Amino acid sequence: MKVRKNPATPAGTAAGTVHHFPPLSPRSASVIRMVRTRGNTNPHSEMPKAESIHLLKSLFRERACWKAHELAERMECNERTVRRHVQHLTDAERWPIDGGKNGYTLREPSRAETKLVGPGEVAALVMAHGALRGLGSSELAERLRDELMHLCRGSRDLGNTGWQNLGAAIHQEAARGDAVMDADLYGRITLAMLQRQILDIRYRRMEETGSFRVRIFPQKWISRDQCWYLIAEDLERGGQRAYALPRISGATAVARPAGFVEPVFVDHYQHAFGIWTPFDTGAPLHEVCVELTDYWAGIARERCWHPSQRLEEISPSAVRVHFRVNELVEVKSWVLKFGGAATVIAPLALREMVLCEITEMKGNYDR
Asked: Cα(347)–Cα(325) distance, rounded to whole angstroms?
């Protein structure tokens, strides 16, 4: 255990008293190292105020109660500086810290920990407000709203704006795809997933009216085209499959059979354009190149349709969109939505698929 002399001797303590403190946490230690490498050649000089405040916050997050001389020791400053920085936290940043002869105590650490500090976090709060509408008036939704209201009260960026006012920044129309989401079913399946349970679900194929039972081991949720899909191992037919949430009508947990070995999740979707995937880790990847012109060229410069996407500038009114995928079916539909502004450059298989679809569409109008 490291032993250091306290540079600020508290009242009633003999000069030169040696204090024993636990080592600094990695987080707090990194703050000190960061400050000293910013051109501060004197290791005994006090840190600039911003970094001192940062370190003080880190210390209060580690422990709620501190003596003044303990903070001074950890921050390597005097107690007067500690008092000044604590005052800043209570006055300017609204940290609920009580001070007295016994030291400093942080009340409600969660409020201080999660206080909004910038416009980006305000944006996230507005998005959370919109997302909570889907939970309605459930107990969970109310608890989340209470916590988020604390954030509103602790944010200088929001000023006097309250949680109830954030909805004014959001179009209140339900997001497309959300209307058919069963939050209760989604929650039950998610809980089974986290608890590594086997489920019996009722599922309906797109082209059928009736549902059937299937036993699965749920692994992940994936969102595509504003719809949630459950990725699960089919324990009866074998293999990983995708189940659209709107077509799942029930889920019941069942006991694991003796000797059950959990299937390993294999991410087949990292190269998928949508929900279609060959479920074959060895499937070849298609190098897609589509040229977009005029209005859609401008849209392409603002959008990312796939993680592997890159843009090739052709002219002010034309760009080529490149990406690599393992399935072309949904890419074909994506190309067609641009109409005459899109031209498939590669691969040849995609060009033929688009041409075949255009011919069939033309036939619908020639009748």
From this structure: 11
DSSP 278: -
Q: In whole angstroms, what separates CA 260 from the centre of its chain?
A: 32
Distance CA(246)–CA(272), nearest Å, equals: 21
Q: Which residue has the tokens 């604590």?
A: 86
DSSP codes joined into one string, 26-41: HHHHHHHHHHHTSS--
Helix (H) or strand (E) holding 318: strand 318-325
pLDDT reported for residue 306: 92
Eight-class DSSP state of 179: G
Any idea what DSSP says for residue 152? H
Report yes or no: 5 and 76 within 8 Å, Cβ to Cβ. Answer: no
358 burial (CB, 10 Å; 0-12 / 13-18 / 19+) is exposed
Angstrom distance (rounded) from CA 286 to CA 350: 9
3-state secondary structure 78-145: CHHHHHHHHHHHHHCCCCCEEEECCEEEECCHHHHHCCCCCHHHHHHHHHHHHHHHHHCCCHHHHHHH
Do residues 365 and 343 lie in contact, with contact meaning Cβ atoms separated by under 8 Å? no
State the Cα–Cα distance between residues 117 and 156, nearest whole angstrom. Answer: 8
Q: Which fold has domain 179-254?
A: SH3 type barrels. (2.30.30)
Give 191-221 as a DSSP string.
HHHHTT-EEEEEE--TT-SS-EEEEEEEEEE
Place of tokens 């760009």: 319
The pTM score is 0.58
Contact, 245 vs 186, CB < 8 A?
yes
In the prediction, which pLDDT does 160 show? 62
Please compute the mean of the pLDDT values over residues 351-363 and round it to a whole number.
Answer: 94
pLDDT tens digits for range 137-159: 777 777 787 777 766 665 555 66
User: For strand 318-325 and strand 310-315, is the pairing parallel, antiparallel, or unpaired?
Assistant: antiparallel
Cα angle value 205/207/210 (rounded, 5°): 60
Task: Note the helical H segments in 202-324.
Answer: 295-300
* Nearest-angstrom CA–CA distance, 92 and 115: 12
Average pLDDT for the chain? 80
Domain boundaries, the chain: 3-109, 119-169, 179-254, 286-366
The fold of the 3-109 domain, in CATH, is Arc Repressor Mutant, subunit A (1.10.10)
